[in-house]
Known about the structure:
Number of helices: 16
Mean pLDDT: 90
Order of helices and strands: HHHEHHEHEHEHEHHEHHHHEHEEH
Shape: globular
Oligomer: single chain
Low-confidence stretches: 4-28
Amino acid sequence: MKTQPSIARRDFLRLAGVAAGSLCIAPTFAAVEGTSDVPRSRLDRLTTGTNVCRWFRYPKSESPEHFANYISAAEAAYMAQIGLKHVRLCVAPRFIMDPVSGNILEKHAKQLEAAIERFHRAGLLVIIDIHVDDDHHDELDPKWRDRFVRFWGLLAARLSRFAPEWTILETINEPICGDRKDVWDSLNARLAAAIRHGAPRHTILTSGINAGGIDGLAKLSVLPDRNVIYSFHCYDPFPFTHQGAGWTSPAVRPLHDVPYPSSPEAVKPLLAELQQNPDAKQLIEWYGRERWNKEKLASRFGQAIAWGAKNRVPLYCGEFGVLPDRCKPEDRARWFHDFGQVLAENRIGWAVWGWDESFGLNREMRGGKPVVDAVVAQSLGLKP
């Protein structure tokens, strides 16, 4: 969750309200050696990464120049230079999948393959993330599911030419399926089988319902395939990471200057102006009572660690970040510092959202060269 099309499809109170939340963590990769067929070399390449959000998903331009050169070879090399080892390349289905037949759209398929090759040449592993965060699909429609399975079978066969050591295939971004475990378990198994048929040696990445959060992970049935990594996304605590986001619920849209860490005392100044918005007031009161800090983040991580240890599978944090627009810079810096420490202390593979969106590294081109958010980069152990 982060941008408008993604949030609009979710029940905000389920994701961000008074109950669950989902902070992402994995057991150390070492904990699953001998029980998983995912090569250690691939797990090592997942230790530091970023989402490439706007190349094949909501591009500012759909010109041939954009799809050919959005990230240059020099920029890809810079990404590796600062310490990134992989990218999660977000691909909206409309650019690659015929919505009627499920066939691959040849034009953009070739451009996608060229992008993969560019990252590989820079020494970056690529996760192909089919990023269905818009409203142009229906996971509850059996016909759509059939088309999507057909599409993934064709795409996996096509991408199988890329080295398995450097290419991971992710079934779908943030599955929802009406939050029906039975629907997603069935579709997930079909997608994994289609991918495995087309790409016998490639690692598969998947996640649970409830938009890929920890609640969905807890409900997920582990696949019989042992060459699979299990992912979940983390935007906890939501009132802080998404404060003021215009695409969220009426409880979150008016929020600004939400403090981190949180306590009843820290949020008290915000409550007076929220008297006319009971839902927002209740949300901020909850946020204060929960006392979000590094220890709280680590506690959330423990829930996923327990699931991974129980099922003896490798986990991965595929998204996290904080929207900066209405957030105090010093509070955002504290959150990334704490989050980065918890990631490092638990040896978690991750991809920050995003390289080219404001929740994370927020790359900007200045004088023809990429410049990233130094606070975020340094908190995550990168060296821009």
